[in-house]
Amino acid sequence: MKMLRTIRLDASDEHVFAPAAAPGELAVSGAFAFAAIEPEGLAGKTRQAFANGFLGLTSFGRATFVAVTEADEVELEAAREALARHFVEHYGAPGLAEARPEAEAELAFAMDLAKDALLNTIFTVWRGIGEDGGIREAFRIVEPTREPQHARVWDVVEE
Question: By three-state DSSP, how is residue 147 classified?
Fold first, then answer.
């Protein structure tokens, strides 16, 4: 199945997010983490995580970029359980049984973003507060090229 996975194009995430997600983690949008935060309370690395960060499901750090990759059911189940535990430990979910459907919904949203995209498509997120006070998200997509981007400059010829 297609899923989002954190990637790094450079080391900037280490300086922008606290903590930064490691490359290769399955990821979700993670907007839920900001549901109870007042926009005026967003500053520094928290503001950057709100505005542009995907949530890695191993470290629960943030990443600027995710790419569409394949994930098997074992990986997805591990991510589902990790996210459900995260909901219990950090967001007050009463138990794993109650947290699992919410974790499943987060994963389903990420999988829905990825389902029609080519493998290696890169996503970024922009997040802000709408006029109604709710969180709004917009995703930018950079598709992998299908055509060579450079002209052929030599040929290899057998002698």
Answer: coil
Residue spans per domain, the chain: 2-142
End-to-end CA distance of the chain: 47
Q: What is the pTM of this model?
A: 0.87
Predicted confidence band of residue 150 (pLDDT cuts 50, 70, 90): low
Please tell me whether residue 112 adopts helix, strand or coil conformation: helix
Q: Is the peptide bond before 94 cis (omega within 30 degrees of 0)?
A: no
Phi, psi of 80, rounded to the nearest 5 degrees? -60, -45
**Cα dihedral angle (143, 111, 81, 13), rounded to 10 degrees?**
20
Residue 48's pLDDT is 93
Up-side HSE of residue 140: CA atoms within 13 Å toward CB? 9
